[in-house]
Design a protein that fits this description.
about 400 residues; mainly beta; Methylamine Dehydrogenase, Chain H; Immunoglobulin-like; five-stranded antiparallel β-sheet; four-stranded antiparallel β-sheet; globular
């Protein structure tokens, strides 16, 4: 069933949504329902790390690579997967990383320079380097060379996730050590002392304004572009009483700025699913809505903004996600258009009074980011300086949401 929570009474505008859930299992061609990771290739192919090998879905059928069909693959038990810009597929296992070049797999281990053979996460940086998180640190592959980073640069617990900031910094999600930031020469950390909910980091995502969304074992913490703690989301997924703790397994953003989080808890209750945040409130989806199961592992967003969800009981595609905001809101007392807006937003109040009205604009953290005087009940607002995302407009007691796109 769906549950929605809202930050304040400001969040009263209308959201139109029509999600479609499509679930795939072994009946549809998966080699196993136990899926660990997912990656979207540039050609649209969906690559899966599974307990029975590497699997690719082309939209019609599944193709599986295992140690029998592809002897170069290190193990059938694949934990992490990534597809690089040149089309190579990197498959992480507990006994090394195997790279598929379109013809066969080549496996690399600590003998080649890995920090550890147990791979937890793989991501390609914008500069082309491939980074791997391991249980003992992190490894960078650059120009044919592996470079391992371990203690004391990486705290005990290794690296569970890798993400990249716009300025080139590498953000590493520590298994026990918080967030580790590498600027190319030095390592710094963000921990509970800096506002992080937990030092057990599962995933990291960046929005268009370079705000950081850090998924932890106790919920989501947010940091701004200057790496300052700005808030927490401790209950993106509503669990049955008395359990309220939200261990977040993964977090991604789509092209519209929506945040998608996977949550799974397996003590006291066995519950989980996917929640999405539009800037104002969380909406959660569970098995009853069409998810393959509650044990959500990883998420990926494709070019059509469909969200692919791997679970221990199958694969689910959430498609047809609509986030339209009604332009003419009679209950708000004013209209905004165009919505979404790229540079200029027009405001028309129903009560076309001649006196001046103050328009206030708030961001997703409910911070006042812009004010304008509206004369005669209508006017325009320059929003070109605002980062892409969703905002709240408040005018003469009414409120309404709008989206800025770039």
């Amino acid at each position: 069933m769906r549950h929605s929570t809202f930050l304040t009474a400001l969040l009263s505008s209308t959201l139109l949504s029509a999600q479609v859930f499509t679930t795939y299992t072994t009946v549809d061609g998966l080699p196993t329902n136990n899926l660990r990771d997912v990656a979207v290739a540039s050609d649209g192919g969906i690559w899966l790390a599974t307990q029975a090998g590497v699997c690719m879905f082309d939209g019609n059928s599944f193709t599986t690579h295992n140690t029998v069909s592809h002897p170069g693959l290190a193990s059938d038990d694949v934990v992490a997967i990534a597809v690089t810009a040149n089309g190579d597929v990197w498959a992480g296992t507990d006994v090394g990383v195997s790279v598929f070049d379109g013809a066969g797999y080549t496996t690399y281990t600590t003998a080649d320079g890995l920090s550890d053979d147990q791979i937890a996460n793989i991501k390609q940086a914008p500069n082309g380097d491939v980074w791997m998180g391991t249980i003992n640190g992190a490894t960078r592959y650059s120009n044919g060379t592996f470079t391992a980073f371990t203690s004391p640069d990486i705290p005990f617990g290794g690296v569970q996730y890798i993400a990249f900031a716009a300025n080139g910094d590498v953000w590493l999600g520590g298994g026990l050590g918080g967030v580790i930031i590498y600027d190319g020469s030095t390592f710094t950390t963000l921990t509970t002392a800096n506002g992080l909910l937990s030092n057990k980091v599962r995933s990291i995502a960046f929005d268009g304004a370079q705000n950081k969304w850090v998924a932890t074992a106790k919920g989501i913490s947010t940091f701004d572009a200057a790496d300052q703690h700005t808030g927490d989301h401790t209950r993106p997924f509503v669990l049955p009483a008395p359990d309220t703790l939200n261990p977040v397994t993964d977090i991604v953003l789509d092209s519209q700025g929506r945040v998608w989080a996977g949550v799974y808890v397996d003590y006291l209750v066995t519950e989980g699913g996917v929640s999405t945040y539009d800037g104002f409130g969380w909406t959660q989806y569970e098995t009853a809505d069409g998810l393959a199961g509650p044990n959500v592992r990883r998420l990926a967003v494709d070019a059509d903004d469909a969200v692919w969800v791997t679970t221990s009981t199958g694969l689910t595609k959430i498609s047809g996600v609509v986030n339209s905001i009604v332009e003419d809101r009679t209950d708000a007392g004013f209209a905004l258009y165009p919505n979404p807006a790229a540079s200029e937003l027009f405001v028309v109040a129903e009560d076309r009074i001649a006196s001046r009205i103050d328009l206030e604009v708030y961001d997703a953290q409910l911070r006042l980011v812009l004010t304008r005087n509206i004369l005669g009940g209508r006017g325009s607002v320059d929003v070109s300086a605002l980062a892409a995302g969703t905002y709240i407009a408040k005018l003469n007691g009414g409120t309404q949401r709008f989206v800025v796109v770039r």
